[in-house]
Design a protein that fits this description.
Strands 1, 2, 3, 4, 5 and 6 form a six-stranded antiparallel beta sheet that branches. The chain is elongated and about 65 Å long. A hairpin with a 4-residue loop joins β1 and β2. By secondary structure, the protein is α+β, with helices and mostly antiparallel strands. The protein starts with 20 loop residues before the first helix and ends with a helix. The chain has two domains: 148 residues, no CATH class; 81 residues, no CATH class. It contains nine helices and six strands. The longest helix has 22 residues. Helices cover 46% and strands 15% of the residues.
Length: 242
């Protein structure tokens, strides 16, 4: 068995002998994938990500190494959660008048660092600098993934339940993307519920939202410099959310 790699049973092996940050993070990702294999995740070493594919949907956990990593000084990574959906990409390309999305990565649905999701930044960071502490650090991180990340992915699995199950931080950041996804899945009512929840959670959003909605009702598009809340109102109008 190679040093720093899991055996076929996915048992955590000794990582203390590894020194280079890329080797340590790579071995960590491979071990995490072995533990999450039953949930459908695999490890893409070249991209440093765990990924689960469900049809055209991709759920990703990126292990982003710190730019300060140095052999013998620091070995740390942070986890970033992403969801991408091929059906959403197809819908956006077929309905350019209904989407405000601009960019080549048009399968994007939602995503953010694990620390943003939990509200405690360090919970999304893993420090593997001390060789003797690496096993415990990874085991603790695996528990956080199962407690926080996997339920978060589940929140956008069933469109009809997403408006109620997704956390406020995700809806706040990606209301437009989520609304487009719900409409593309034929869940207009769920998209409208999502809109109402988004508005109810912060009354300050309403003025800009109404400005954007007026633009959509007049057949105009927001300026490229328009804020997120204006774009949300525009989307609600062109998507027919009431």
């Amino acid at each position: 068995m190679d040093a720093g790699k899991p055996d076929d049973q996915g048992e955590l092996v000794e990582l203390a002998a590894l020194e280079r940050p890329t080797e340590v993070v790579g071995a960590a990702g491979q071990w995490l994938a072995s533990q999450l294999r039953g949930e459908g995740f695999t490890w893409a070493r070249s991209l440093a990500k765990l990924e689960r594919r469900i049809g055209v949907r991709r759920e990703q956990i990126h292990l982003q190494s710190s730019k300060w990593n140095r052999t013998g000084e620091l070995i740390e990574f942070g986890a970033v959660l992403n969801v991408r959906d091929g059906a959403l990409r197809k819908w956006r390309r077929a309905n350019p008048a209904l989407t405000s999305y601009v960019g080549v990565n048009d399968d994007w649905l939602c995503g953010h660092p694990l620390g943003v999701l939990t509200g405690v930044w360090h919970q999304g960071q893993v420090d593997l600098t001390a060789p003797a502490a690496r096993n415990a650090q990874l085991e603790g991180f695996l528990r956080r993934l199962r407690a926080e990340a996997l339920p978060w992915f589940d929140g956008s699995t069933e469109p009809e339940q997403a408006a109620e199950r997704l956390p406020s931080v995700t809806i706040g950041l990606y209301f437009v993307d989520l609304a487009e996804w719900l409409v593309c899945r034929g869940c207009q009512d769920a998209a409208a519920r999502l809109m109402r929840r988004w508005l109810a959670e912060d009354g300050a959003r309403r003025p800009d939202f109404e400005s954007g909605r007026s633009l959509g009702e007049r057949g105009e598009r927001p300026d490229v410099s328009a804020g997120q809340w204006v774009r949300a109102g525009w989307s609600s109008a062109v998507l027919g959310l009431t």
